[in-house]
Amino acid sequence: MKEATLLKLALSCAVAGICFLFIIVNALDYNEKTLDSIAASDVDATLKFKGVIAKPSSTAELTTFDLEQQCRTKVLMFNKNMTIPAGASVEVIGKVSENTDKRYGGKYEIIAEEVKIVK
User: How do 108-117 and 72-78 pair as beta strands?
Assistant: First the structure.
């Protein structure tokens, strides 16, 4: 095969691959839920929540805060030393888990994979 033909084929495949990835990434949309609608069937599911930050706390290994809507739920982020101001509106994507420590209140907590500050 000629070098020019291989170059055209390689560029075509690269452009097609990038377009395919763009379509797939945009198609991945997590189910958005409210905190008061979390049920036992949602445990270990990755969901999206929107709310307001309350009581943020940060260490080298862990960032925690309460996410407020009509109710409040504890959110944990491991290995992400992130400073989030209280009162900030955020979008949290994370796994729902059962709260084993009843001192924090609530039946469930969220192990965050991604937190975005929204305006």
Answer: parallel
pLDDT in tens, 59-106: 878 888 888 888 888 888 887 667 778 888 888 888 888 876 666 566
* Pair 76, 86: CB distance under 8 Å: no
Q: Using CA atoms, how far apart are residues 105 and 91, in angstroms rounded to an integer? A: 21
27, 42 in Cβ contact below 8 A? no
State the pLDDT at residue 6.
Answer: 92
CB burial of residue 106 (10 Å; 0-12, 13-18, 19+):
middle
Mean pLDDT of all residues belonging to the chain: 83
Give the distance between the most distant pair of CA atoms in the chain. Answer: 70
The arrangement of secondary structure in 35-117, i.e. its CATH architecture, is Beta Barrel (2.40)
